[in-house]
Amino acid sequence: MDINLNLNKIYERIRRGKYSYICCYTLLFALCAALTAGYFILYHKTNIWQQDGLKQHYNALLYYGKYLRAVIKDLFDGGGFSLPMWDDTMGYGSDIVTTLHYYAIGDPLTLLSAVCPVSKMQYLYFGIYVLRLYLGGLAFSWLSLWHKNTRAATLLASLIYVFASYSLTQCLMHSCFPTPLVYFPLIILGIDKIFEDESPAVFIVFTSIAALSNFYYFYMQAVLAALYIIYRYVCKYIAGNKVREGWHKSALRTLGRFALYGLNAFLISAVMLVPVLNVMLSSARWKAEKYVPPLYNISYYAGLIGSYVAHKGNGSGTLLGYTALPLVIVILLILRRKRHMKQFVLFAVMTLFLLIPAAGFALNGFAYVSNRWVWAYSLMTGCLFAALYPKLYELTAAERRRIAAVLTVLSVLSVALSPTRNERGFLSAALILLVAVLISLTELKKERSSYDTVNQTSPGLKPPLITKNYGSTNIVLCAMLVFFIALNGYEQFSVTAGNSFIEEFTDSGIADRKLTRNNADALLEGAAEGDFYRVNEEGIDSTQNSSIQRRINTTGFYFSLTNPYISDFINYMYFIWPKDYDYEGCDNRSVLDALASVKYYLVKEGEEYKLPFNYTEEVGEGEFYGGRAKLYKGEGTLPFGTVYDSYVPLSDFEKMDVATRQNALLDGAVLEDSSFKKAEVTSDAVSVLKSISGTGSVEIDEEAKTILVRRNATVTFNIDGLDEAETYLIMKGLSYEGIPQRATYDEGGWAGLTVFERYKVRAGDRYFSPDVTTSMRIAAGDKADIVEYYTPKHIYYCGRHDFLTNMGYNKKGLKEITMTFRDPGLYSFEDLDVVCQSVGSIEKKLQKLSGGGMERVTRGINSYSGSVSLSDPKIMVFSVPFSKGWRVFVNGEEKELKRANIMYMGVELDAGESDIELRYETPGLRLGAMLTLAGLVMLAVILTIRNMEKRKNGGDRP
Predict the structure, then answer these.
(1) Which of 908, 887, 870, 914 is nearest to 674 (CA)?
(2) Quick one: which H or E segment has residue 206?
(3) For a disulfide at 784, which of 354, 713, 747, 779, Cβ 3.0-4.6 Å?
(4) Considering Cα of 421, then 425, then 426, then 430, what sign does the dihedral take?
């Protein structure tokens, strides 16, 4: 009893102290953060994930800091305010704002990068992650306390909300993913305030900031906020019987208010939203038709209970991990659903969203099926816990027994099926069972203790879980929750727990080296020259997107939003990349390298065989971190502005096979229409395929163009390759269907298995789900490439089914090409062929085009300029991707800028001397800035009118 009394005294002091809640929250947050994310400090790790974290998120923050400092420096150095909008080092060249908005630009917290030294950026990156979680808990607390939930309940619920699996997994891997944790509770608070006739400022301001911070998550927040408005209206007016007749007029008034405030928020954020939406709506990533299954597979549903409790991924981005305490509240809610029908309906609808793939697809912007919106489910879970937590003190003995029984059943179910019978599944079961035992013991304690005796010994003191605002119980439950969070953190991050998740993150000090020094750029500094050129790399293993830090022009890109015309080019030319926003190089095809103005190749010593035929001049060599590298210069590389005297109609180009298309790009500029004469397209590319044979368990049907791969299969393309040619394996209309393990055995192989081995195969097929991705290794001589293929069921499917693998330049004709398969299954093709392209004809066409192009090319901020002298009218094609933000001026007069050669841009020029200038401005940025200014004025007007009404009505809203 003395212990209980002391706990009560401590609790009362904390509860009544000034700023006590914020102090308690801060201390508990710091404790839980140390017990979870603290492992990164312990192991000298950063929270920079080695995949997207390094290549995109951290890279973008590093870039943004340098970008802001450069803009500020120019401003104070007297250069005026100049905002760079285009960067050549992002792939073939890309818009800065729309490319990096998703990762950094627009988020208020990333502005801190402007004052952070580059050497300390990894610490800021980690600090922003922790700060976002902390602010998310405060935002949740504001919402919960506004709803008059108790401080104790709010404190516990905020920890459940902040330290869920989503925060400790996805938010670590992707730095922008915590943003809705901060803003969505405040958007919901703003909605609630409007329904209670309070100021709309909270709703408008935080909706605007959410939209400015990240368009992707703003979409989810906007959809869920709209659904919540409907829910809130029904709860307040319909279910509350406050509107019986004429409810539709009330609904229209409510709709009108939120439409006005929502429009205001959109206008304020338009400076970011308008440019980004302009790109996003044209992106091929969102245009490809996606597969949406009617239901998830059985392992998904089997693992839901376990994933609710522990940090256990459940597929499709479903990351819950709330510990077992909220599970008690959920069971209580279901048992008392008639008393708490509003909360029950909210829980049922949100849970239904988790169970149906179509909901995840819609909330993910119709891009693919993913429950990345689970932060909203976490918010709902926290709000239910905060609201119903006091009801734990009112539980009857019968209710305790029922809750304990249900928890025991759930514990068994969490490991009932084989897909969940693993270490994480058993941990979940143990946690649920522990809470069930505690519920039971609490009841036993009540039965064994006399209520009156307790009162006489310590007046006013009552058994735990019985009395409201009982301090010792709150402290004990808080300690239990912290223990559960710590246990989940241990399982998620500790190397002693056997989990390798933390190994996916970079060691301290490594990220900057990978982005800036793990390359052979020193060779370029000493040898490269010219007005404008690009560089390709072979064997250097430079980090993707590191070019934006190294400040070199390459042909690699990996950011979420890409230029749609580059996507078109990738599809037309059958590049081997399955994702058109993730590409590296031009497949070493001499024609495509020349068109991209690739003047230099950095190649690791020993891998010179990968070079196209015209890169023969070695201009430098030296050591780099991965060995020894050489720098080669190409002959016939086309200049920044290449001139053509004829054009190829786009409609004709689309009808050509891929090899002819490649030749057509050198015969004339590909345009939709032109006043110039049509080009005569010539192609000496010829098919050299003689036959296809296979080894291993494989069935080839050349007539049907199908290959059934069972196991250990290799397919050989027997060819009669040409000398002095590039050789291409072309797969058109590729599709793949995975097969169960049983189908990988023919009758003879199946008969050769023992009974036990057959049983194992059948057991493995019990939960069979076809692979949604596969890959093939294509090899000939020293050259090998991996073709990765995504089926329409893959979440990153971009609609790609056509691939060309370049087996390189060969002086002596190849005799065979081999294809090995990663996965068994049925591979089908519309066409499958091997084609040789003579390099002699390519060389002649390049020599014709390489002269007479744009000279004295000068790069300015958002501009290029140069000149050309022509004896006849020509079409000039610039090796910069087409964008509606570009404008072209010839001798000071604006001319029509045309989309040329699919992804580039061109202009028709008259004979004579021409001074040419290209100017760029982010499409929609100027309009967005004006709309933002209008939105700020609109907000001021709305708040002024409201304040006038308040004064008119004596300070109260009517």
Answers:
(1) 908
(2) helix 201-213
(3) 779
(4) negative
H or E element, residue 890:
strand 886-890
How many Å apart are CA 275 and CA 922, to the nearest integer?
A: 7
Question: What is the mean pLDDT of the segment spanning 739-759?
Answer: 88
CA atoms of 427 and 253, how far apart (whole Å): 51
- pLDDT for residue 244: 55
pTM confidence score: 0.92
**pLDDT tens string 905-946:** 999 999 999 999 999 999 999 999 999 999 999 999 999 998
CA separation for the pair 205, 268 (Å, rounded): 9
Measured CA to CA, the distance from residue 841 to residue 829 in angstroms comes to 30
Pull the structure tokens for residue 189.
């608070």
d(CA 540, CA 543): 9
Could you give phi then psi for residue 923, rounded to 5 degrees? Answer: -60, 125
**Cα distance between residue 160 and residue 253, in whole Å:** 36
Angle, vertex CA 448, rays to CA 445 and CA 451, nearest 5: 90
Interior/surface letters 893-922, b for 16+ CB within 10 angstroms, e for the rest: eebebbbbbbbbbbbbbeeeebebbbbbbb
- The single residue listed with the structure tokens 């050549």 is 88
Residue 436, pLDDT > 90, answer no
Tokens standing for residue 796: 């990153």
DSSP letter assigned to residue 315 = S
621-639 pLDDT, tens digit per residue, is 999 988 999 999 998 889 9
Q: Are 581 and 285 in contact (CB under 8 A)?
A: yes
SS3 of 660-673: HHHHHHHHCEEECC
Chain centroid offset of residue 756 CA: 44
Burial 928-950 (b: 16+ CB within 10 A, else e): beebbeebeebbeebeeebeeee
Give the angle 61-565-788 at the CA atoms, nearest 5°. Answer: 75
Q: What is the residue-averaged pLDDT of the chain?
A: 89
Cα–Cα distance, 634 to 601 (Å, whole number): 8
Handedness of CA 154, 156, 157, 162 (dihedral sign): positive
